[in-house]
Amino acid sequence: MQIPATREECEALDRADPLRDRRDQFALPDGVIYLDGHSLGPPTIKTLERVRDASMKEWAQGLIRSWNDAGWIDLPLTVGAKLARLIGAKPEEVVVTDNVSVNLFKLASAAAKLGEIGLIITEENEFPSDQYIAQGIGNWARVRAGEGPQAAAETRGVLIKSIVNYRTAQTVDVAEHERTVQRGGGVIVWDLCHSIGVLDHDLAAAGAKIAVGCTYKFLNGGPGAPAFVYVRNDVAAKVQSPISGWFGHAAPFSFEADYQPRANAARFASGTPGILSLSALAGALEVFEGVDLAELSKKAQALGDLCLSRAHQLGLTSISPSRAEERGGHISLIHSEGYAIVQALIARGVIADFRAPDAMRFGFSPLYVRHVDVWDAMDQLGDILTTEAWDQPEFHRRAAVT
Ligand SMILES: *Cc1c(COP(=O)(O)O)cnc(C)c1O
């Protein structure tokens, strides 16, 4: 597709955008261009209503009766079933539970029993928490860092692997990785944190067996929204969760002394779920209803192309793939003063983020970011660079969260 060369061309593309009506469903503040949906998605109006109902009606009025009457007890699975469409899974293959880090621990440990040797493998550019979890498991199992699919194939190991890299946005060919690793009897635990809600996933077609993912990034589930676990039905029967709590038990309210796992992915639930967060996520997923996932990823690619072309005009380099098909939903631009530049952008209402040591990340959530937003953000970035507006003491001060 042609990359727009003027703001007017951006406006024309936005008018013709099949997803344009979705933006109105978000509760975005005025005067802000939000390019940080890869870190924390904004709420929709429905999400805020669900949080209010869940607290004011279901909790305050319904009290404990809401576990049954409001369907709280089933939420991890009903929300999981909604999510399943976004990744090409069957409804019962997804459960919403815990956070990504805990789920990686559960799944990598469980998968180690599928490959007989039980070695856990991480690549060197993998998201830090994924590497830390592997290092933790390394206290009682064998772990190898800095290796990839080949090692998993040769050792019948468990590879933890992101579909979209958090720094570069580089995607991987899931089907090809599965073929390589499965040929040797290894297993991949896929991490969909930076790809769900922006890529058109078909895990079943790609032969993926196990995955985790985040719901507070492109799915807009809210700060600390619970993560999800995908386990293919035939695989679930062969694995057990090392955190075998009562919510993963076949009959939690029978209060039996012995653990009996539930069927399917639900066995990876652990303890009592956070109902307010789950309710927010249930509301957040409504904006995805009826969305053609191919349109979603196509628009993210187009916005990324626009960002890259304008960044090149500004003389900036990128570590993100220039070929849109090889990218997730964000672009990382490199500058040694990236932190201060991002702070200067935020002060002007353009919210992006920074990943040490030098990557400025711009996320293009296709449901609410428009072409004109990217255009205007790049105008601001250009102005900040030429005027050196970033070189102010307040923009150099590092906050705890970048
Ligand atoms: C955001 C992210 C996580 C987050 O893990 P939490 O335990 O939910 O905080 C993990 N892995 C990747 C690749 C991520 O992008």
List the helices and strands and how they pair.
Elements: H1 7-15, E1 33-34, H2 45-59, H3 66-69, H4 75-87, E2 94-96, H5 100-111, E3 120-122, H6 128-137, E4 143-145, H7 149-155, E5 158-162, H8 174-183, E6 187-191, H9 203-206, E7 210-213, E8 228-231, H10 233-236, H11 275-284, H12 293-313, E9 317-318, E10 330-334, H13 338-347, E11 350-351, E12 353-355, E13 359-363, H14 371-387, H15 393-396
Parallel strand pairs: 1-11, 3-4, 3-5, 5-6, 6-7
Antiparallel strand pairs: 2-8, 7-8, 9-10, 10-13, 12-13
Bound molecules: pyridoxal-5'-phosphate.
Gross morphology: globular
What hetero molecules are in the model? pyridoxal-5'-phosphate
Major sheet, described briefly? 7 strands, mixed
Instruction: Give the topology string: H per helix, E per strand.
Output: HEHHHEHEHEHEHEHEEHHHEEHEEEHH
Q: What is the tally of helical segments?
A: 15
Q: How many strand units?
A: 13
Strand residues, percent: 5-15%
N-end to C-end Cα span: 33 Å
Residue share in helices? 25-40%
Class from helix and strand fractions: alpha/beta
Mean pLDDT: 97
Q: If strands are numbered along the chain, what order do they take across the biggest sheet? A: 2-8-7-6-5-3-4
Alpha carbon gyration radius: 22 Å
Low-confidence stretches: none
Assembly type of the shown chains? single chain
Written overview of the protein:
It is built from 15 helices and 13 strands. The chain is of the alpha/beta class. Helix 2 packs antiparallel against helix 11 (275-284), helix 4 (75-87) packs parallel to helix 11 and helix 5 packs across helix 6 (128-137). The structure holds pyridoxal-5'-phosphate (PLP).
